[in-house]
Amino acid sequence: MAQHIGALDQGTTSTRFIVFNHAGDIQAMAQKEHAQIYPQPGWVEHDPEEIWQRTREVIAEAMAKGGLQPKDLAAIGITNQRETTVVWNRKTGKPVANALVWQDTRVASDVSELAKTDGQDRFRGKTGLPLSTYFSALKIHWILENVQGVRPLAESGEVLFGNVDTFLLWHLTGGPAGGIYVTDATNASRTQLMNLETLAWDKELLQAFGIPPAMLPEIRSSSEIYGVAQEPSIKDVAIAGILGDQQAALVGQACFEPGEAKNTYGTGCFLLKNTGIRKVDSKSGLLTTVAYKLGPQQPPHYALEGSIAVTGALVQWLRDNLDLIAKSSDIEALARTAPDNGGVYFVPAFSGLYAPYWKDSARGVIAGLTRYANKGHIARAVLEATAFQTRDVLEAMQKDSSIKLEMLKVDGGMVSNELLMQFQSDILNRPVVRPASKDATTALGAAYAAGLAVGYFTDLKELRANWSADRAWQPRMKNDKREELYTMWKRAVTRSFDWAT
User: Fold this and answer.
1) DSSP character at residue 299
2) Which residue among 107, 187, 264, 426 is least crowded, i.e. fewest CB within 10 A of its CB?
3) Residue 380 contacts residue 410 (beta carbons within 8 Å)
4) Are the beta carbons of 6 and 77 closer than 8 angstroms?
5) Where are the alpha helices (DSSP H) in 253-328?
6) Up-side HSE of residue 476: CA atoms within 13 Å toward CB?
7) DSSP secondary-structure letter at 400?
8) Between β-strands 73-80 and 85-89, what pairing exists: parallel, antiparallel or unpaired?
9) What is the pLDDT of residue 2?
10) Which of 195, 169, 493 is nearest to 357 (CA)?
11) Angle at 14 between CA 454 and CA 193, to 5 degrees
């Protein structure tokens, strides 16, 4: 039996390929960034061909670093930035336009137009999602309406839509020469075109968004053999798992029981809470989404999700736009130069606010500035914004779900920031636990899904046994101080509302 399992992790800013052993330890890894394209304010694009090229490069590089041959891999899983929309030509494999990234807000006017009928929650009953610029449906619609000649090709099935998982799977398995054209239920649940009950494309939704069914991939489970790779460095290896990145992190954190939750701190922040096979409809501004479907015969498991648009991206903004730090990791040292936030609060609504507010018209605000405030206070406010937004989401989850959260499992790039993790525990009044696989949890989840499909892993108990804690933080802030800080945060948030018209 092959000794290793592979995972392709295609994220918002970079692509990486990681090879794990059976214990979930990294054996080889390669990672490369791709360009962020900002044609206009609020527009965010990626070049799909660049992403495909980076994908090929990191796979070949990681395999070479590990001295690995295709026969050494039992299977490969794919995890990806969700909602980011790619439309390409079936015959040539070439995209008809740049990918519209999940952060892109160009369809805000379409959101307002659709919401005139039955409001922002018009499709929430079927999809678990409010009308927002976030999801794929309106991005597809924008391409169909604004790229000349695409709509008739879409209606005939010559032009294909996929989130990044589908685009890469299609290319990896042959592209124009017979590439496999599927997505999984977790990614499909983020398009706003799939019915959460049936796990099928919904005719009413397709009609409302003006999207031809011929351009949509087949929806499959998150753990099954879809096809085999044609790339030379992984030739004939089964591709057997697909999970959207946040669902992959939930699986990688072994959150398989209702009530278990994880928060991933990356470009944005995404808190998912497993609700089991029960679909919980949110009344508090959260998303209802498919958590995973680990096999064609297995029932789907659902999750409540709170999506925060800007967390790690705010640190990058401080670095790139204001030059207050040389590299992202410098923010902790700068923040520690101030004993507290000095009354400063930073609401990073650069592209509106996601859960639980869903205010597309909100814009970023720094509140509470006085002559006393300095760059240390600003840095602390930047870090605290991530923790405050996480509490906003957790408060909403407690309202929606009767399942109490005992602790929060955390992963992603920002969890190495110990000042942030302690403040997160303090403001939540709950333990915060970082796993040993803190930097690769998303990829590990995709590897788990693929490994289950081919028998490399036996069952969920085996995956749970792989999980171990690296560090835990306990709350130590007094309750009156905690509530004072959070009250001021909520006041600052209201100042960001309705700035854009």
Assistant:
1) P
2) 426
3) no
4) yes
5) 312-320
6) 7
7) H
8) unpaired
9) 82
10) 493
11) 65
Q: Is it the case that residue 285 has pLDDT exceeding 90?
A: no
The partner residues of 408 in beta bridges, in order of sequence, read 432
Do the Cβ atoms of 204 and 122 come closer than 8 Å? no
SS3 assignment for 177-201:
CCCCCEEEHHHHCCCCCEECCCCEE
**Closest by Cα among 363, 360, 331, 367 to 346:** 367
Q: What is the pLDDT of residues 178-214, one digit of tens each?
A: 999 999 999 999 999 999 999 999 999 999 999 999 9
Q: SS3 for 318-366, per residue?
A: HHHCCCCCCCHHHHHHHHCCCCCCCCCEEECCECEECCCCCECCCCCEE
Structure tokens at 164: 């990044």
Cα 106 from Cα 116, distance rounded (Å): 18
Separation CA 229–CA 214 (nearest Å): 25
Instruction: Report the distance separating Cα 268 and Cα 266, nearest Å.
Output: 5
CA dist., res. 236 & res. 228, Å (int): 5
SS3 per residue for 431-485: CEEEECCCCCHHHHHHHHHHHHHHCCCCCHHHHHHHCCEEEEECCCCCHHHHHHH
* pLDDT of res. 251: 95
Question: How far is 218 from 200, CA to CA, in rounded Å?
Answer: 9
What tens digit of pLDDT does each residue of 354-408 get?
878 888 889 999 999 999 999 999 999 999 999 999 999 988 888 887 767 788 9
Give yes or no for a contact between 79 and 245, defined as CB atoms under 8 angstroms apart: yes
Rounded average pLDDT over 435-442 = 83
Residue identified by tokens 């659902």 is 302
What would the pLDDT profile of 322-354 be if each residue is shown by its tens digit?
A: 999 999 999 999 999 999 999 999 999 988 888
Per residue, the 3-state secondary structure of 104-154, as one string, reads: CCCCHHHHHHHHCCCCCCCCHHHHCCCCCCCCHHHHHHHHHHHCCCHHHHH
In this prediction the pTM is 0.87
Strand 73-80, strand 238-244: pairing: parallel
Nearest CA among 302, 245, 306 for reference residue 440: 245
Interacting residues of 367 by C-beta distance below 8 A, sequence separation 6+: 344, 345, 346, 347, 491, 492, 495
Looking at residue 413, its pLDDT comes to 84
- Gap between the Cα atoms of 214 and 281, Å rounded: 30
The DSSP letter of residue 294 is -
